[in-house]
């Protein structure tokens, strides 16, 4: 079976005009990053309740919001910073009155505090990292953008609500961003994907507002803000042993 790889993420993915041009071409034709809802439903469904008010960040032209609606989650608000995207999605799903659409920047959510029971994103936060060349050493700009979005998510979540992030970012890269005490939530993750060893896996992170972080995650989050130490210099080469017969060691 062909192995799935993470989608390429050139820097243009962080630019609004790229997405506007894409959605003007594609309209609301479904495009799924990281797969459709069925791939994550076993991990996602236990976190949801039928009456939840759900916010989907960076909805794009994914069918995720509509699929949630069809499963009985009938109060779903979807935002994207592309007007072309929102216009296309609003027209396509006009028959679903429980689906709400808005043009909005995820870094500045225009909702009151504690507005939602669930905030959900699938691949949207990965766009904040497209310019990063070293995932072990994220730039201050990318870290600040991530923190700004997560602070907004925490603000609009009600006490007891949850933030669910679906991404291909592995825990040692993504958990430090989520494990910040200032957000006031707990953190856990699950692995999604095919069971065979060669398959590409995705990760579903769940942050529950009002529950404490594990001490290990607290320490992980604090390290994000510490300056990275330069690698230790290599020790000098050992002096040659004058008693060694180098001619005998040569492999002819």
From TrEMBL:
<protein>
    <recommendedName>
        <fullName>EEF1A lysine methyltransferase 4</fullName>
    </recommendedName>
</protein>
<dbReference type="InterPro" id="IPR051419">
    <property type="entry name" value="Lys/N-term_MeTrsfase_sf"/>
</dbReference>
<keyword id="KW-0597">Phosphoprotein</keyword>
<dbReference type="InterPro" id="IPR029063">
    <property type="entry name" value="SAM-dependent_MTases_sf"/>
</dbReference>
<keyword id="KW-0949">S-adenosyl-L-methionine</keyword>
<comment type="similarity">
    <text>Belongs to the methyltransferase superfamily.</text>
</comment>
<dbReference type="GO" id="GO:0008757">
    <property type="term" value="F:S-adenosylmethionine-dependent methyltransferase activity"/>
</dbReference>
<feature type="region of interest" description="Disordered">
    <location>
        <begin position="225"/>
        <end position="244"/>
    </location>
</feature>
<feature type="domain" description="Methyltransferase type 11">
    <location>
        <begin position="56"/>
        <end position="164"/>
    </location>
</feature>
<keyword id="KW-0489">Methyltransferase</keyword>
<comment type="function">
    <text>Protein-lysine methyltransferase that efficiently catalyzes three successive methylations on 'Lys-36' in eukaryotic translation elongation factor 1 alpha (EEF1A1 or EEF1A2).</text>
</comment>
<dbReference type="InterPro" id="IPR013216">
    <property type="entry name" value="Methyltransf_11"/>
</dbReference>
<feature type="compositionally biased region" description="Pro residues">
    <location>
        <begin position="228"/>
        <end position="239"/>
    </location>
</feature>
<dbReference type="Pfam" id="PF08241">
    <property type="entry name" value="Methyltransf_11"/>
</dbReference>
<keyword id="KW-0808">Transferase</keyword>
<dbReference type="GO" id="GO:0032259">
    <property type="term" value="P:methylation"/>
</dbReference>
């Amino acid at each position: 079976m062909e192995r799935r790889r993470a989608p390429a993420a050139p820097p243009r993915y962080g630019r609004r005009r790229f997405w506007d041009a894409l959605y003007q071409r594609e309209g609301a034709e479904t495009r799924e990053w990281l797969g459709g809802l069925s791939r994550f439903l076993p991990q996602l469904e236990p976190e949801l309740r039928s009456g939840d008010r759900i916010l989907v960040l960076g909805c794009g032209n994914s069918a995720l919001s509509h699929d949630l609606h069809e499963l009985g989650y009938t109060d779903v608000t979807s935002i994207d910073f592309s007007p072309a995207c929102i216009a296309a999605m609003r027209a396509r799903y006009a028959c679903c009155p429980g689906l709400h659409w808005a043009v909005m920047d995820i870094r500045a959510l225009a909702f009151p505090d504690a507005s939602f029971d669930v905030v959900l994103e699938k691949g949207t936060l990965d766009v904040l990292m497209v310019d990063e060349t070293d995932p072990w050493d994220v730039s201050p700009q990318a870290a600040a953008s991530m923190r700004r979005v997560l602070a907004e998510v925490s603000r609009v979540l009600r006490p007891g609500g949850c933030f669910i992030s679906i991404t291909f970012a592995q825990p040692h890269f993504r958990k430090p961003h989520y494990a910040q005490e200032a957000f006031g939530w707990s953190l856990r993750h699950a692995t999604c994907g095919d069971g065979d060893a060669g398959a590409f896996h995705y990760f579903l992170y769940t942050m529950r507002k009002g529950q404490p972080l594990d001490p290990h995650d607290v320490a992980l989050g604090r390290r994000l803000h510490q300056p990275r130490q330069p690698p230790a210099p290599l020790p000098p080469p050992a002096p040659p042993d004058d008693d060694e017969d180098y001619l005998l060691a040569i492999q002819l």
